[in-house]
Amino acid sequence: MVPRNMTTKVEMPQLGESVVEGTIGKWLVAVGDAVVKDQPIVEILTDKADSEIPSPVNGVVTAIFGAIDDIIAVGETLCEIDETATAAATVQSAPPVNAPPADPSRDAPTSPSVRKLARERDVDLAKVQGTGGRSRITQDDVVRSAARAAAPAPRPAPAPAAPRARAPRGGGAISAAPSGAFRVPPYIERPGDEVVPFSRRRRIIADHMVYSKRTAPDVVTFAECDLHKTAVLRNAHKGAYKSEGISLSYLTFAAVATARALREFPELNARVLDDAFVKLGSVNLGIAVDTPKGLVVPVIRTADELSVRGVARAIGDIAQRAKSGDLTPDDLSAKSFTISNPGRKGNLVGGAIISQPNVGILRLGTIKKRVVVVNRDGEDTIAIHPVMYMALTYDHRVVDGVHANGFLYRISEILEAGDFEV
What we know:
Layout: E1 7-11, E2 21-27, E3 34-35, E4 40-45, E5 50-54, E6 59-64, E7 71-73, E8 77-82, H1 87-90, H2 112-121, H3 139-150, H4 200-215, E9 218-226, H5 228-243, H6 250-264, E10 270-272, E11 277-279, E12 285-287, E13 289-291, E14 294-296, E15 299-300, H7 308-324, E16 337-340, E17 360-376, E18 379-395, H8 401-417
Parallel strand pairs: 12-16, 16-17
Antiparallel strand pairs: 1-8, 2-4, 2-7, 3-6, 4-5, 6-8, 9-18, 10-11, 12-15, 13-14, 17-18
Helix pairs in contact: 2-3, 6-7, 6-8
């Protein structure tokens, strides 16, 4: 009796709350390979993190449906595994790995991001020739198609110019007509130049930043914050925290103050929809962390419900895992507001670009000792205190100046009063 075929389809999983697709980074198996349950079979890259997808069963890989750099939507089939086949029986007809055979009966596949881009650029996908694996239409295909559609028609050769009449004395000169849209001059390589290709993460960051600047009418407002009382509080407790393996940083106090202010100013804890905006129920703080592979923004969930100790511990944990590459997609998803910290080698102040789909981002400046005027017993006097500038970038579609200024003032007020339970 011939055993019946038992084929399992391995589908692209939901790798995080806001992840709708992933890019195939590397196949760890080929058609014809025997696999065991939980064995990594493919590496998937997302804008959140990189993940290895395990095999759900024991068996033999009989089909692969995506090549390296193909974008696969959540729910699409990555490969098929036959639980009854043997490797020896399958390998003879196995197609080369990362080059799956095209299925002419299927329409050219596209990802959600490609379809969104096509709608934004008014491109008919039915008229686009895909260049990706299985004739998949990529974002570059859409951009090229939109550029061709927008290209001006060839201009007819100009007629010979008539002799120009001499202007009478005292007459005004005729100004030249505008030359058209600005064009970047072509790059010409010269000795000593180094061309550095964008990494995948750098490309994602670049695309995100351009999208944010194009989408959000952002405004930046600044505040000066005297950290003297917070510094006194920190110095009194940082030794005890350190003995527990916790760093009591100024970033911790800024994060606690921001989370508290977000509860009082919910317009800053929001995201924009097509014709509305949502005041989000959870305060999930994204903390920008620089790593050897680039900037990432892991998230501290329900930060407003945590104590100073809880926030300090969470910041230490996400920073360590970010630098060791151990963050998961969930660690990087669902942030409702972002804090950018310049680190020890920061600068005075600077406005950050909003991390979409948030409506605000707080950029902390470096802390410097400065001469300040303080009031003691009703008299003004001079003192030397640690001072920090903060810059709030906000989306003016949702946030009015009065709310933005009130929010930033409240953060500064909490920090200047040292209003924390440590």
